[in-house]
Design goal:
Blueprint lengths: L23 E11 L2 E9 L9 E7 L6 E7 L5 E10 L15 E9 L9 E8 L7 E2 L13 E11 L2 E10 L4 E7 L6 E6 L8 E11 L7 E10 L8 E9 L4 E3 L26 E5 L9 E5 L22 E8 L2 E8 L10 E6 L2 E3 L2 E4 L8 E9 L4 E8 L5 E6 L4 E5 L15 E5 L7 E8 L2 E6 L4 E6 L8 E7 L3 E10 L2
Antiparallel strand pairs: 1-2, 2-3, 3-4, 5-6, 6-7, 7-8, 9-10, 10-11, 11-12, 13-14, 14-15, 15-16, 17-18, 18-19, 19-20, 21-33, 22-33, 23-32, 24-29, 24-33, 25-26, 25-32, 26-27, 27-28, 29-30, 30-31
The chain binds beta-D-fructofuranose.
Beta-D-fructofuranose binds next to β1, β5, β9 and β13.
Length: about 500
């Protein structure tokens, strides 16, 4: 068996996920659907595959599935790095950057000023605009447009607020070290007025980064809108390192009021388990949503990596994939409002490579059972289980007969686990090998799982999409087995469907 090493050309390149051709990427930036095209900009080092020279890379897609990489959109220079931010379509040319015939796209990004700049040490918000649909960009001569003199003020997400309070641009950004989301208002994207701030609240390890704020209809009822504030934090996630949390509440055009802030148990070591997380896995960070998606859909994507080991993962020549794009909705439950996330429906029409593997109901006896004919490297696995006497049961994917990535349910503990300790290469960083868990509840007496497996990742959607775990893995290309297992007793598989992509 040939081991896949970091020097294998294009090792681990995903089939379903976006990754840059040959360079580093981190946070998604400037996500927008415009003139029939999805634009994905991202933190990019155009000159290497570790973090540095921060610029906005660029890719586009007609369908969220296939992406085309374009030249760097906004490049760093000797004065500033181009940190994270967002893009709006300024359809009424409020900024004046447009012409009589063409309304501009306006990028709002963080200028991270360098030594040579008169603003050295400051992070402030700046503008660039595009009159060709997002391919070439001109920096605004009056940058920065919003500075607080702070060295940790970044990641502006701008959207058009239309509500009882009026119609204007709203920016949410962070004071990263203060665990504060700060809200500003503008008529023209150039001059900004402070509205309010939110935080610290719930998880406050590390720094707060990359916030987002958007309304969602509870259970699809347009008469019942709630606002969701998402905040990424690093470190301090529920399984270590980078992760994103969310708050549900109201935004009146000035102030965000959270209905999901937990004030009890601040000394409780398990308190992270009481907060709401966009994803419980180790590799779902800087999640942010697209603007102007048709049909009121809220689509999110995240950087699939973790700052703990981001620069060390053994991919080459590129480094870091994006997550799959997710459709996000809001559900009222007995426990409160919960985000429900599904992989965007566009993925269900990706043509399968070989016929699907299907299995009917049956008992899973104690032990590990290799599924003949189910092997694959790029798969969507849909499974429904019923507990029996087993302490833990589930799936092993990207296996090599003895080892693999274990995705299991522990019904007595009410937890789902993703164990990547034997997933393949793990020794490139001491914190990588891990067993990560999230709370989970059955639906009736059964547990549903949808798992997207790719060349270097698993993304697990459980409990109807209320619980997700995204994890990088680095298996040998020959590790393709799929198994069912039960430990300490038996369990039942109700249905199993595997779509094979490659
Ligand atoms: C989050 C982050 C942002 C910053 C960017 C720099 O991963 O630290 O806060 O804008 O990355 O690349």
């Amino acid at each position: 068996m040939t081991a896949v090493t970091a020097t294998t050309p294009d090792a681990f390149r995903p089939a379903l996920h976006y990754a840059a051709r040959s360079t580093w990427l981190n946070d998604p930036n400037g996500l927008i659907f415009h003139e029939g095209v999805y634009h994905l900009y991202y933190q990019n080092n155009p000159e290497g595959n570790v973090w540095g020279n921060m610029s906005w890379g660029h890719a586009t897609s007609p369908d969220l599935v296939t992406w085309t990489e374009h030249p760097v959109a906004i490049a760093c220079d000797e004065l500033e790095d181009i940190f994270s931010g967002s893009i709006v379509f300024d359809r009424h040319n409020t900024s004046g950057f447009g012409t009589e015939f063409k309304a501009p796209l306006v990028a709002v990004y963080t200028s991270a000023y360098k030594q040579a700049s008169e603003h050295h040490g400051v992070q402030a918000q700046s503008l660039a605009y595009s009159l060709d649909g997002g391919y070439t960009w001109t920096k605004h001569a009056g940058n920065p447009v919003l500075s607080r003199g702070s060295s940790e003020f970044r990641d502006p997400k701008v959207f058009r607020y239309e509500g009882d309070a009026g119609s204007y641009w709203v920016m949410v950004a962070v004071e990263a070290q203060d665990f504060e989301a700060v809200f500003y208002k503008s008529e023209d994207l150039k001059s900004w007025e402070l509205l309010s701030s939110f935080g610290p609240a719930n998880a406050t390890g590390g720094v707060w980064e990359c916030p987002d704020l958007f309304p969602l209809a509870v259970d699809g009822d347009p008469g019942n809108l709630k606002w969701v504030l998402t905040v990424n934090l690093n470190p301090g996630g529920p399984n270590g390192g980078s992760a994103g949390q969310y708050f549900v509440g109201d935004f009146d055009g000035t102030t965000f009021t959270s209905a999901t802030t937990v004030t009890k148990g601040l000394q409780d070591p398990d308190r992270l388990g009481h907060y709401q997380w966009l994803d419980w896995g180790r590799d779902y960070y800087a999640a942010v949503s697209f603007s102007d998606v048709p049909d009121g859909r809220r689509l999110m994507i995240a950087w699939m990596n973790n700052w703990q080991y981001a620069n060390n993962i053994p991919t080459t020549p590129w480094r870091s994939p994006m997550s799959l794009v997710r459709d996000v909705s809001l559900k009222g439950t007995d426990g409160g409002w919960r985000l429900v996330q599904q992989v965007a429906r566009e993925f269900t029409s990706v043509p399968a490579g070989t016929p699907p593997f299907m299995a009917g109901a049956g008992e899973i006896s104690e032990g590990t059972h290799l599924l003949d004919g189910a092997a694959g490297s790029v798969q969507r696995i849909e499974a429904t289980f019923m507990p029996g006497t087993a302490e833990e049961f589930g799936l092993i994917v990207r296996g090599n007969g003895t080892h693999g990535t274990r995705i299991g349910i522990r019904p007595a503990e009410g937890r789902i686990v993703v164990d990547r300790r034997e997933s393949g290469q793990t020794d490139f960083h001491e914190t990588f090998a891990s067993i990560d868990t999230a709370p989970i509840e059955p639906a009736g007496n059964s547990y549903d799982l949808t798992v997207y497996v790719d060349q270097c990742s698993v993304e697990v959607f459980a409990q109807g999409g209320q619980v997700t775990l995204s994890e990088l893995i680095f298996p040998a290309s020959t590790s393709t087995d799929v198994s069912l297992y039960a430990a300490g007793g038996t369990a039942t598989i109700n249905s199993l469907n595997i779509t094979q992509y490659a």
